[in-house]
Amino acid sequence: MKEDTMKTNHVVTIKDVSEHAGVAISTVSRVLNGLDRVSDETRIKVERAIEELGYVKNSLAASMKSGKSRIIVVVVPDIINEYYTAVVRGVEEIASQEDYYTMLFSSKDSHRREQKLFSGELGRAIDGAIIIPAYDELDYYRNISKPVVIIDRYVSGSDMHAVVIDNHKASYLLTEELILAGHRNIAIISGAQEFNIGMDRVKGYRDALKNYGIEVRPENEMIGNWYQEHGYRSTLELLEREDPPSAIFAANNLLCIGCIKAIREKGITIGKDISLTGFDDSEVAQLLEPDITVVRQETAMMGKIGMMKLLDIINRNEKTVYPKKVVLDVELIRRHSVGKI
Amino acid sequence: MKEDTMKTNHVVTIKDVSEHAGVAISTVSRVLNGLDRVSDETRIKVERAIEELGYVKNSLAASMKSGKSRIIVVVVPDIINEYYTAVVRGVEEIASQEDYYTMLFSSKDSHRREQKLFSGELGRAIDGAIIIPAYDELDYYRNISKPVVIIDRYVSGSDMHAVVIDNHKASYLLTEELILAGHRNIAIISGAQEFNIGMDRVKGYRDALKNYGIEVRPENEMIGNWYQEHGYRSTLELLEREDPPSAIFAANNLLCIGCIKAIREKGITIGKDISLTGFDDSEVAQLLEPDITVVRQETAMMGKIGMMKLLDIINRNEKTVYPKKVVLDVELIRRHSVGKI
DNA sequence: CCTTATTATCGAAACGTTTCTACAAAAATT
DNA sequence: AATTTTTGTAGAAACGTTTCGATAATAAGG
To answer: How many CA atoms lie within 13 A of A184 on its CB side?
Structure first.
């Protein structure tokens, strides 16, 4: 009785399977991994034994020996931002198709946390990483001793594997939209200029202005960080000027929300008293009254392609279809936050 | 020269450390884990060796031997719903404090995916799980051979470790708010009744009506699923009746969004022509015009307590402060989506 | 029918830890 | 000074796999 209980408690190993099937341990392993050739007869015996005993591979032990864990980690700045979770969704879709496990890690935009991850135990356990970097020295990421794909943020001139969107174009389109509605005094609220997402967005804005022969006024460029608070404060400051801008371009979703809050607080109306374009499309942008003109980015696609690139690197796939740096196109979504002047 | 390169390429193991320090492998291990007593002299020697060689523990190997991976998995129905990611944030906070790694897994509300996770390799590798279940047979989760804490959704009568909010109270408060504003014809839009989140929310609604002597009308209970589409269709149906309700209570965030879309489409005004209460608080609920009356749930706290409970179970901590089932309180947030009648 | 090539299987060593048992040295007790 | 206890360390076995070299069995070539 007691022995019975003990037996059921015991987790079944490859050794149990081999004994049950009357073959060597190595044979079972070969059946499991389907690498080498095994006679049909043996294969069936082993498979039946696996079935009967309810064997489940201990991936930890396997990983230790083979050095592969089939775990990839996705590093995002913030787990709660829907923009990032949409990327993760894309990654997960491809990963699970290929029997990889994804682990989500939130860096909270802290390079320290990233370092802790990659220099620590887990950093050694993973097979690869997809990173939205918190640090603008991409060299750091290049020196990670695992396959890495950079997503969303980039430093131009780097030669790392990366998937980004066409920030310059997006920004140009959103600014142009305001110009075409007759605006001449247009402000931009943007975050740090370390990454392409900062520089290209400001550059796209400036280039649009220049192209239409509009003066670029430094005081209209509110550069700070990417968080709501900055959007809020910058907007208040802009609106309290003697000569406030007639249109604002908020360079990401959080800045846009902050901006809207400030505008509301001032009691003026978006699309009438002031025009506004945002960046990332979202539920909020659609539901607001008026709804916000934005660019749609293929966020999930970014994750998907990132993961496919990572797989190519892990498997040293020579005939990959992707260039080192993939730039995704964007699409302007016209809504009602831009009013004619 | 060649040897040099080879040496740097070689990953340093505990054995290298032991040789460098001139002690036994086991001694290094004891220093690393700080379990047994080691003389200060030896400890320092070993620590210096670790420092000099840049040794990083191979957690895979350690896990294999000890049977502990320090990985816990958080299973959520949908990674993109901010309600769930807020929970995950709470979990992560506690987990990283205690040097656990969290792995995020999206079940997509599919029990199949859950089963695949727990019956597969990874299911064996983890130390525990925090689950928002996709399946209403909690017995399934009880039989997972790992420590498990159920979050958010629950089946009454079960005796599993769980952290939930007071759905009945939340629902009661939101309905009462409508009643106190003079409404008598109040509809509820809710999801499936398998879990407490369904049953308690409908029950809270009914109990509020009864308490105020208002007739409970079955045709006012739009029970379906928890997704936007259901909120949208139900609202359209309600509004097209001869005797449409003057107020709607949408029992989660997605239903509420669907509801709002339908109302907008009909060209009527929330807070005036129709009153509305939602459930989960969110950025959207705050930014909409008018902003929506909801209950605030301590979502992150749910994750935190869930993780602390899980740690108690993993460590077989007898003096835990938490009851098996923790019920968190809720708070009504009055905004402007409810109009007096 | 003997040799060589091919195929299927086995046994054992490895992977990098943890942990148990044993033993020597030092400290404490007689 | 002889015994016992405590403390610190070493050595080796174990964890559950993968993988390599060896071997046995079968097929092919002369």
So the answer is: 5
d(CA A147, CA A138): 14
pLDDT, tens only, A161-178: 999 999 999 999 999 999
Alpha-carbon Rg for chain B in angstroms: 26
Domains of chain A by residue range: 2-57, 69-164+299-328, 167-297
As a whole number of angstroms, the distance between CA B203 and CA B196 comes to: 10
pLDDT (tens digit per residue) in A84-140: 999 999 999 999 999 999 999 999 999 999 999 999 889 999 999 999 999 999 999
Give the residue from B76, B97, B104, B113 with the most A CB atoms within 10 Å of its CB, the best one to mutate: B104
Report the CATH superfamily, name and number, of domain A69-164+299-328. Response regulator (3.40.50.2300)
Decide if A2-57 and A167-297 have a common fold.
no
Mutation to test the B interface, candidates A8, A104, A227, A286, most B Cβ within 10 Å? A104
CB contact under 8 A, A60 and B56: no
Residue A295 has pLDDT above 60, yes or no: yes
For domain B167-297, the question of CATH label 3.40.50.720 is answered with: no
| pTM, to two decimals | 0.91
Fold of B2-57: 434 Repressor (Amino-terminal Domain) (1.10.260)
Q: Are the Cβ atoms of B102 and A101 closer than 8 angstroms? A: no
The alpha carbons of chain A give a radius of gyration, in whole angstroms, of 26
